[in-house]
Specification:
two-stranded parallel ribbon; binds zinc ion; 232 residues; 2 strands; mainly alpha
């Protein structure tokens, strides 16, 4: 039961952090990303977006509860050491990020996918942290396939996996999503040059047709030539 409760607790914690970060940014009167006039976030807009944000968070909670209840005997609470946990969590993050890049790029390059699915997320020209889940539910569910496969692969390879691997992955992933959607926030990880920043993602939201599709590791945009050069 701790496996399920711990997972839901991390999701609730990050959702609460995201909510209060949004409140903080709206109260501060964030100036938007400077590229979209009138993009300063307002209470009215944030309130209007809360139902979809809440729906997606609820879907995440339900899938976590059902999934981990079903597979609870595949996870252990044992702590195998910082290095093995970090390495496995990093593997899930890397698989998810590669899948995210491909999915996100397809959502932009395919006009039907963009119009029917991804356009909702881009209603936010200068997003607030919790708007990382202001997306069509299909976008979120397809985005979950990569980390699910990576986690399933680790479980199959190990027989039983430490739940700490998933918890570390989940915490890093969700805090990172909140971070890059905090449009005007300075990077909280200036010593990690390969990790995407709020400025990177703000540029994507300001110029969504031009690129900058990566999330965690900005290296994907460099490898596939989709970095937005400011001034284009
Ligand atoms: Zn996008």
């Amino acid at each position: 039961m701790i496996v399920v409760a711990g997972t839901v607790a991390i999701q609730l914690l990050t959702a609460a952090i995201g909510f209060f970060a949004c409140v903080w940014m709206i109260r501060r009167g964030e100036p938007g990303n400077g590229r979209a006039p009138g993009s300063t976030p307002t209470w009215a807009v944030f309130r209007a977006r809360l139902p979809l944000i809440g729906l997606n968070l609820a879907i995440m909670f339900v899938l976590s509860i059902v999934g981990f209840t079903f597979a609870v005997d595949r996870f252990t609470l044992a702590w195998p050491g910082a290095l093995p946990v970090a390495a496995s969590a990093l593997l899930i993050l890397a698989v998810e990020d590669a899948c995210f890049y491909a999915w996100h790029r397809a959502l932009h390059r395919n006009k039907t996918l963009y119009r029917r699915i991804h356009r909702i997320h881009h209603q936010a020209w200068a997003p607030l942290p919790l708007e990382y889940v202001y997306v069509h539910p299909v976008e979120m569910l397809v985005g979950g396939i990569g980390p699910f496969l990576a986690l399933a692969g680790l479980v199959l390879a190990n027989g039983v996996l430490s739940i700490w691997v998933f918890w570390v992955y989940l915490l890093v992933r969700q805090l990172h999503e909140l971070h890059i959607h905090a449009t005007t926030l300075e990077p909280l990880h200036p010593a990690l040059p390969l990790v995407g920043t709020p400025a990177d993602h703000a540029l994507h939201h300001a110029r969504p047709t031009l690129g900058q599709y990566a999330s965690i590791f900005r290296v994907w945009d460099r490898v596939f030539g989709t970095v937005i050069r400011v001034g284009r």
